Amino acid sequence: MRLDAVIARQVRDCSRSVAARLVKTGRVTANGVTVKPGYRVRIDDRIEGRIPPLEPAEYTPEPIPLDVLFEDSHLIVINKPSGLVVHPAPGHHSGTLVNGLLHHCRDLSGIGGQLRPGIVHRLDKDTSGVLVVAKTDTAHGALARQFKERRVQKRYLALVYGIPGEHQGVIDFPIGRHPVERKKMSIHAPRGRSARTRWCIQRNFKESALLRIALETGRTHQIRVHMAAMHSPVVGDPVYGSRRRHKSFPWPPGVKPPLHQMLHAFSLGFQHPETGVYMSFKAQPPVAMRGLIRALAAQAGG
Q: Which of 14, 59, 123, 185 reaches 20 to 30 Å from 261, CA-CA?
């Protein structure tokens, strides 16, 4: 076996990537000699090293309220509200989900050599719904493999402009960085990656529809890009939506147009990284989205 694989197997809560980094930096040797992570371990080899103490996270813990659906020593499942950024980035150094998790989780055993929660997947800032976060390197690696192998069940609800011509369908357009607007994604990218989105109509309204969506892949902005490509952009989407349709849309009396996209991750299913037991979590759409759906239904007479 490779040296990094041996270390990951023998040392609890040490992923293969962390083991490889320890070998590369000379913290682990084989027979007293610095080797590469791909070194093939042989019988009677003497592997020595020391796991360095975990570094404190570079982000500040903040007492941000969290809607916790499930938590144990390996992971935590959150119902993320719309408007909350998942991970610190330029322009969002504080007030993120990670800042809140660092304050909430007192039993982090470390991810990548740091005391920080492991973000396995993300939801856009203005997308609400179920999100799983790892607390240990082992959990992070196991969950990441499930996402990579497409074994995680992800279900969304999206309120879209217009009514699709079919009751259900599959959108199979590759997605990549927009060739001109670099902050956007596009189905016309020169080097797009495969992306598949399954959808079906849950309810029809006057000039809109509520769709139930299942992702087979997890590309950035996938649902929003695919819905726009289908000429049914997500209601309230400021990036991929249509300003003309937003202004001309027959909003129900007393309803203000939404300030963010009406997209909610209502269900997430995966195998527990430690026990292997299948777990599934659901969360109702936020109040604003439920209210808009009720108003549209009343306007449509049903």
A: 59
Phi then psi for residue 182, to 5 deg, are: -70, -15
**Locate tokens 């217009």: which residue?**
162
pLDDT at 300 over 90: no
Given the residues 44, 45, 107, 124, the one annotated as active site: 124
**DSSP assignments along 129-194, one per residue:** EEEEEESBHHHHHHHHHHHHTT-SEEEEEEEEES--SSSEEEE---BEE-SS-TTSEETT-TTPBP
pLDDT in tens, 188-222: 988 899 999 999 999 999 899 999 999 999 899 99
Strands 263-271 vs 128-134: parallel, antiparallel or unpaired = parallel
State the CATH number of the domain containing residue 45. Answer: 3.10.290.10
Q: Would you state the pLDDT for residue 244? A: 84
Q: Is 13 tagged catalytic?
A: no
Q: pTM for this one?
A: 0.81
For residue 229, give the 3-state DSSP assignment.
helix
224: closest CA among 270, 269, 173? 173
**Which pLDDT score is estimated for 68?**
97
Query: Which domain CATH number covers 208?
Result: 3.30.2350.10
* Amino acid at site 79: N
